[in-house]
Specification:
The protein is of the alpha+beta class. It has a single domain, classed as Cytidine Deaminase, domain 2, CATH 3.40.140. The protein is about 25% helix and about 25% strand. The chain is built from four helices and five strands. The protein has helices spanning about 5-15, 55-65, 85-95, 115-120; strands spanning about 25-30, 35-40, 70-75, 100-105, 110-115. Strands 2-1-3-4-5 form a five-stranded mixed β-sheet. Bound molecules: tetrahydrodeoxyuridine. Tetrahydrodeoxyuridine binds near residues 55 and 86.
Amino acid sequence: MNEQDLISSAKEMTLRSYAPYSGYHVGCAILGNDGKVYTGCNVESASYGATICAERSAIAQAVSAGCRQFIMAAVISDHNEICYPCGICRQLFYEFSDQMIILCCSSDGRSERYSISELLPHGFGASSMSD
Ligand code: THU
């Protein structure tokens, strides 16, 4: 699985996105350290607050399948702006993999590559409470 394939998997998930309120369709694909790819899309609610982002939907897929270590994730929307994960999703990525890479992509083919610590500097995790 190369980076381009991971981005394609994420892009495919934008078609499954349920986003009737924002009209902003997001897909995410995570490469787990088991070599498998876990995908998710955003799922909105009329209550707005119950909305789940694509990233957390993909994280839930991975963890439910028994994968808790991520190598890389690709995030993309159906818009031409680069899609960057929201703060809550950065925090949940960090929970499982404080070294992972995140590819932030646009639907017109651009991508930017960040480590999770670049997106979430001085992240708070389990080790923050160990001493
Ligand atoms: N959204 C994601 O799924 N991931 C992001 O990284 C940014 C925002 C979703 C949430 C909501 O359904 C829509 O995009 C607009 O905020």
